[in-house]
DNA sequence: GTCTATACATCGATAGAC
DNA sequence: GTCTATCGATGTATAGAC
């Protein structure tokens, strides 16, 4: 059983059941092995969690830096950011849920001062403020705006069965991702330029 | 130890730690009693959860019905809805977190077909569509819009330590609630009328 | 690397004294 | 109503055979 496969299985279990709800025994069973075999690869549950979840969350921070930077106009970069985030969350069904759980549980990736959530929020807020200063975005409270934009991105994919009941079919189907991308880019653009 | 006090303590524990993470022993300790004493009041953990969390979530559905109905214009009702929801979530620090956890865990209040989350989402979507038909809201995908509006309401309060780091002070301070209320009403208004 | 067997703590839940 | 004591199952983790 390759290590990467175990990490993927654990990631899915943590996303579905949360840290407390996903036992080492349950993860091992999903992988088709016994509990001690899983402990052989990962000596502690916490270590497994950090490695499995960290791999899914790290790209998010990189994404924001990638799109927020660059020499295009603020509106173009904003659209690009929304598309990249939507595509990433759509392509990795566990990512949004893991991130929201981290937020609710104040997990290890939020406690650390230099980790995704806090850094990403600061980056988004700074980007919005810069866009306001440049006159491309309407003047508004950038802190509340940043939190709302992050919220609307994460919740849709994290709430999968609920979101899927609103639209038809699965949230992670290619067509639905394209549909969400269009909707969310329009919404965010309206939010930062309107009123 | 009055029953209502036990329910409040349990509610807080479930909000902080989740269903799996909040043990009957931990809840009993918070209440200053022993585990069997807690079991005397609530024979099963699941029963305690349903009663404690149900009391916090039921008012949310009533709120939406209350504000979405009425004979005012759609924009006025929309503003009122945003204010009521923000005030309720601000006054009950566990509510948003409990609701988001219910969504992630597909808890008992989501599985049931007639329960808060699904019903509320449908009500919000129907309200948005009616407003579009009336010409007060801009034509857009009401399903995606409803999901984003719910997201931006819930996430801000559910992400307390994270949101609190962006603004200064606690999310549940009166001043901060007023600040959020103004921001969120403006954002939602922009979302439904803009573009 | 995977297994059986096991250690020790905690889980949800019960029995019965006070 | 609250307690001590305990049940059986399950939690994380380890020892040691193959």
Short description:
Two copies of one chain form a homodimer. Chain A has helices spanning 3-21, 24-31, 35-41, 45-68, 74-91, 95-105, 108-111, 116-133, 142-158, 160-166, 174-193.
Can you walk me through this structure?
The structure is a homodimer of 195-residue chains. By secondary structure, chain A is mainly alpha-helical. Chain A has 11 helices and no strands. The relative contact order of chain A is 0.11. Chains A and B meet through α1, α6, α8, α9 and α10 of A and α1, α6, α8, α9 and α10 of B. The structure holds a DNA duplex (18 and 18 nucleotides).
Please describe the topology of this protein.
The structure is a homodimer of 195-residue chains.
Chain A: H1 3-21, H2 24-31, H3 35-41, H4 45-68, H5 74-91, H6 95-105, H7 108-111, H8 116-133, H9 142-158, H10 160-166, H11 174-193
The first copy, chain A, binds a DNA duplex (18 and 18 nucleotides) through residues 1, 23-25, 33-37, 39-41, 43-45.
How many DSSP H or I helices of chain A?
Answer: 11
Oligomer: homodimer
Percent helix of chain A, as a range, is over 70%
Averaged pLDDT of chain A, please?
95
- Global Rg of chain A: 18 Å
Q: Greatest chain-chain interface?
A: A-B, 51 and 51 residues
Q: Could you say which structural class the secondary elements and strand pairing of chain A correspond to?
A: mainly alpha
Coarse shape of chain A: elongated
The fraction of residues assigned to DSSP E strands of chain A is: under 5%
Termini of chain A, distance in Å?
55 Å
């Amino acid at each position: 059983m390759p290590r990467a496969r175990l990490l993927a299985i654990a990631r899915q279990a943590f996303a579905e059941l949360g840290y407390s709800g996903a036992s080492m025994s349950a993860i091992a069973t999903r992988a088709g092995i016994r509990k001690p075999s899983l402990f052989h690869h990962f000596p502690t549950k916490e270590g497994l969690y950090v490695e499995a979840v960290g791999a899914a969350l790290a790209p998010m921070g990189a994404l924001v830096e990638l799109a927020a930077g660059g020499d295009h106009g603020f509106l173009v970069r904003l659209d690009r950011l929304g598309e990249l985030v939507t595509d990433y969350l759509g392509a990795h069904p566990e990512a949004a849920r893991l991130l929201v759980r981290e937020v609710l549980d104040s997990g290890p990736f939020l406690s650390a001062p230099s980790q995704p959530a806090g850094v990403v929020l600061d980056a988004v807020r700074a980007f919005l403020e810069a866009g306001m200063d440049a006159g491309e975005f309407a003047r508004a409270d950038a802190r509340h705006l940043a939190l709302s934009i992050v919220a609307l991105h994460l919740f849709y994919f994290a709430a999968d069965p609920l979101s899927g009941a609103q639209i038809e079919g699965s949230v992670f189907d290619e067509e639905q991702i394209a549909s969400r991308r269009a909707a969310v880019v329009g919404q965010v653009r309206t939010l930062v330029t309107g009123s």
